[in-house]
Amino acid sequence: MAFLILTIVFSVSIVITFRLFSRFNIDNLQAITTNYLVAAILGFIFHPEAYTFSELPARPWFIFSCIIGVTFILTFFLFALSAQKVGVAVTSVTSKMSVVIPVSVGIMAYAEPLNTIKFTGIMVSLLAFYLTFRKKNNQKIDKRFIILPILLFLGNGANDTLTKHSQMFYIGDEFLLFLGMVFTVGFFIGTTLIIIKAIRNKDPRGMVQRKNLIAGTWLGVLNFGSSYFFIVGLSLFESSVFFPIFNVSIVSLSALAGFFFFKERLKPINWIGILLAVCAILLIAFGS
Fold this sequence. Notes:
mainly alpha, 11 helices, globular
C-alpha cells in the first residue's frame, strides 16, 4: 500500500507543479523535454546491475518502452489541445475515465477476479470522476473537436494497458532501465519539437531558457518518482484495484489542492464527487 500512496503523492505533486508553471510563465514544451532527460538519467543511474546501452535493444521490453515513450508525450499534447478546444472539465473527466480500458483488460485477459463489491466500487469511481469535475455552465462543445477527448481516452487507456502488460510479462527486475528508455524516447521527441518550433517561428524565445530548465528538472524528479512507484505498485496490485484507486485519488486530491492552494471554487456537486471517490476506494479495497 505504501507504493500506491507514494505514486499518488508524486502524481498529485506533478499536477500542482503544472499549475504553478502558468504562474511563473514556464514554457511547457521546454520544461517537459527537460523533465524527460532528467527522469531518463535517474532511471539509468539507479539501475543496480551493470549494463551497456548497445544491448538494450535486445531486451524483450525494448519495443514496448519505445511505444509507450511515444504515446506518453503524444497524449500529453493531446490533453493540452483537447483542454483548449473542448474544455478542461470534459478533457479531465475523459482522461481519467480511460481507467475502464486497463481494468477491463485485466479482468478479461488476465482473469483478475471481479465480485459485486469491487464492481460497485469501479462504477462509483467513474461517477466520482464526472461529479468532481462537473461545472454548471453553458459551455458548448464544437463537434469538430469531439474526436480529441475520444483519442485521449483511447491513448491513456492504451498507455496504462501496455505498461501493465509489460510489467507482467517482460520487465522483470529491469523496470528502471525500462523507465529510462521510455523517458529517453520522450526526450528525443520533445527536443525535435523544440527545434522545429524555433526554426518555424524564427523566435529567439524558442531558445532554451534557464527557468524552464530548472522547472523541468524539478518536474523530472517528480515524474521519475511517480513512474517508479507506479511500476512497482502495478506488480503488487491487480489492474482492477490499482487503476481505479490511483485515478480517483488523483482526481480528488487535485481538486482539493486547487481549492486549498489556488483558491479554485468547488461547487456542492464537486464535493459530492470527492466523497464518492473516497467511497469508491473503500469499496474496491474491501472487495479485493
